[in-house]
């Protein structure tokens, strides 16, 4: 079975499916395909992960600027997409704890990075063990970093929804198909 596509994405996880959607929206004249070896998108890792949508506090703003920016905008993007498609999205936050002075220094670094990466005071807070006990009495630590702008999603449901949106934009999903070989060839003097 022969197909001609301008762009072929191998892998129908959350990333491959999302890329297909964005590309199909940007250029409707391009023929885009996603090839997935399983019988459905997000069948492997994307459908089995924790579904956390992290704030950019773990990324060094100088060395991981692109990752930090993606995490910052990704949270808002998934939250908005969940609202538009009526998908489950829980704003649950995350708590990092320190058991000693060395751990506190690490939390202080994460707080600084989070703010440099765009988080505001309402999004992230360094707490004493006394402050944390008021909201999480079972956690024993010296200090904690509470990141309020952290969420959870079901990436299996999200990927399926993004796939449907991508198909509406013209993307072809080829499921139950394994890529075993990729050949490069010259077409009109260009390597493809």
The level of helicity is 25-40%
Radius of gyration: 21 Å
Q: Report the structural category.
A: alpha+beta
Share of β-strand residues: 15-25%
Task: Output the strand order for the largest sheet.
Answer: 1-2-9
The count of domains is: 2
How many strand segments? 11
Give start-end ranges of low-pLDDT stretches. none
SSE order: EHEHEHEEHEHEEHEEE
Characterize the quaternary organization of these chains.
single chain
Overall morphology = elongated
Task: Note the gap between the termini.
Answer: 20 Å
Family: Belongs to the L2HGDH family.
Domain FAD dependent oxidoreductase: 6-185
Protein name: FAD dependent oxidoreductase
InterPro entries: FAD-dep_OxRdtase (IPR006076), FAD/NAD-bd_sf (IPR036188)
Describe this structure in words.
This protein starts with 6 loop residues before the first strand and ends with a strand. Helices cover 39% and strands 20% of the residues. α1 runs parallel beside α6 (155-168). With 192 residues, the chain is an alpha+beta fold. The protein has two domains: 1-51 and 154-192, FAD/NAD(P)-binding domain (3-Layer(bba) Sandwich); 52-153, no CATH class. One of its GO terms (molecular function) is (S)-2-hydroxyglutarate dehydrogenase activity. This is FAD dependent oxidoreductase. Keywords: FAD, Flavoprotein, Membrane, Oxidoreductase, Transmembrane, Transmembrane helix.
Explain the layout of strands and helices.
Blueprint: E1 7-10, H1 14-26, E2 32-35, H2 45-48, E3 52-53, H3 65-85, E4 89-91, E5 94-98, H4 101-116, E6 124-128, H5 129-135, E7 143-147, E8 151-153, H6 155-168, E9 172-174, E10 186-187, E11 190-191
Parallel strand pairs: 1-2, 2-9
Antiparallel strand pairs: 3-8, 4-8, 5-7, 6-7, 10-11
């Amino acid at each position: 079975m022969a197909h001609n596509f301008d762009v072929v994405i191998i892998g129908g996880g959350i990333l491959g499916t999302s890329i297909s959607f964005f590309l199909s929206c940007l250029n409707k004249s391009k023929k885009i395909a996603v090839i997935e070896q399983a019988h459905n998108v997000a069948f492997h890792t994307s459908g089995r992960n924790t579904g956390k949508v992290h704030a950019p506090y773990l990324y060094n703003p100088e060395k991981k600027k692109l990752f930090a920016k993606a995490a910052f905008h990704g949270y808002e993007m998934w939250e908005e997409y969940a609202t538009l498609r009526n998908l489950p999205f829980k704003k649950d936050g995350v708590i990092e704890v320190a058991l000693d002075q060395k751990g506190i220094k690490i939390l202080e670094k994460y707080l600084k990075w989070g703010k440099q990466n765009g988080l505001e005071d309402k999004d992230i807070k360094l707490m004493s063990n006394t402050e944390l006990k008021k909201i999480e009495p079972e956690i024993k630590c010296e200090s904690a970093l509470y990141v309020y702008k952290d969420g959870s999603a079901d990436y299996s449901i999200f990927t399926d929804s993004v796939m449907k949106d991508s198909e509406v934009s013209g993307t072809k999903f080829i499921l139950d198909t394994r890529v075993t070989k990729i050949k490069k060839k010259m077409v009109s003097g260009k390597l493809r």
